[in-house]
TrEMBL record:
Name of the molecule in the record: PCDGD protein
UniProt topology in membrane: Single-pass type I membrane protein
Gene encoding the protein: Pcdhgb1_1
Main location: membrane
Native source organism of the sequence: Calyptomena viridis (Lesser green broadbill)
Cellular component terms (Gene Ontology): plasma membrane
Pfam families in alphabetical order: Cadherin
Length: 350
């Protein structure tokens, strides 16, 4: 801290992290007593609290060139757990200007299919000091390890580039902090928000939740034959799905009120004697460009109902026999057929 720094100046400190959640992760800070420095908390836009050292009175390097402080972070659990870090404050005659970012918040929008190593944005901080005290280096602030798996910042240029493949469906927005540090150790922080733009990289998926097969041929019109779930992980037009049926089948698609479910219902009576089974293909197409599709094959077997009477081969039989024909002689053989199957097609004569 420069000895000419005016009282009331704030110096952001590194935030503590707690792997717990809820009240167990709520952090409070306290610092060892010092007449020249105190501790204040600044609320960030994301709701977190940033500890800052506040200069209470002007410093004089010739009287005292450094201070040793202990910063303690305590969580809200019962019992409370704490962590400490030692802070050494050096008083300098020269580096009395911290870096300053051109913006407090940087924002960018990039496509999810951006290749690794692509430029996302560039942050910039300036320092009014000269020499090494005015040279600024950039780094990540207090960020989760997952952020470093997607992005990297160039320490000299401030360029933020991708290091891994982005996925809108996994995370549609990345937010993190960056730090600018000059050669004298003064720092500044900014926020970065990167919104991921959805690409049509997912095809619709059809899941058969219910299939009534075999289906009796005397099932009434409107009977539900199948219940299907259609899902596309993309968003907007890329995730808007339409369905159509192909194949010879007396079925129709009815959308459910929820939108993601499709119901196949009978539109006309079945006839096993005409078709013992029906095969059809359901195709789901999204609204992306290019269009992506998903298909599901459905086979419905028709079960026979006793809806056909036996039919004789002739409507009338005429036979002439001699009067002396012995008792028990065969006069004629009649035949009848039944289009049904199984027991429904078994014929008895009397």
């Amino acid at each position: 801290i420069g000895e000419w720094t005016l009282p009331g100046a704030h110096f952001p400190l590194e935030m503590a992290r707690d792997a717990d959640v809820g009240s167990n992760s709520l952090l409070t800070y306290q610092i060892s007593s010092n007449p020249s420095l105190s501790l204040e908390m600044r609320e960030s836009p994301d709701g977190s609290s940033q500890p800052e050292l506040v200069l209470e009175r002007a410093l004089d390097r010739e009287k005292q060139s450094s201070f040793e402080l202990v910063l303690t972070a305590m969580d809200g659990g019962h019992p409370a757990r704490s962590g400490t870090v030692q802070i050494r404050v050096n008083v300098t005659d020269l580096n009395d200007n911290p870096p300053m970012f051109s913006k407090s918040v940087y924002e960018a929008r990039v496509a999810e299919n951006l290749s690794a190593g692509s430029l996302v944005l560039r942050v910039q901080a300036t320092d009014a000091d000269t020499g090494s005290n005015g040279r600024v280096f950039y780094s990540f602030g207090n960020v989760p390890d997952a952020v470093r798996g997607f992005f990297a910042v160039d320490s000299e240029s401030g360029e933020v580039r991708t290091t891994g493949l982005l996925d809108f469906e996994e995370k549609s927005r990345h937010s993190f902090s960056l730090e600018a540090r000059d050669g004298g150790g003064l720092t500044a922080h900014c926020k970065v928000h990167i919104d991921i733009i959805d690409e049509n990289d997912n095809a619709p998926v059809i899941t058969i939740l219910l299939l009534s097969s075999p289906m009796p041929e005397d099932a009434p019109i409107g009977t539900v034959v199948a219940l299907l779930k259609v899902r596309d992980r993309d968003s907007g037009e890329n995730g808007l799905v339409s369905c159509e049926l192909s194949g010879e089948a007396p079925l129709s698609i009815v959308a459910s009120p929820e939108g993601s479910y499709k119901v196949l219902v009978l539109m006309k009576a079945l006839d096993r004697e005409e078709a013992a089974f029906h095969e059809l293909v359901l195709t789901a197409s999204d609204g992306g460009d290019p269009v992506r599709t998903g298909t599901a094959r459905i086979r419905v077997t028709v079960v026979d109902a006793n809806d056909n009477a036996p039919v004789f081969s002739q409507a009338e039989y005429t036979v002439r026999v001699p009067e002396d024909l012995p008792v028990g002689s065969v006069l004629i053989i009649v035949t009848a057929t039944d289009a049904d199957e199984g027991l429904n097609g078994y014929i008895k004569y009397d």
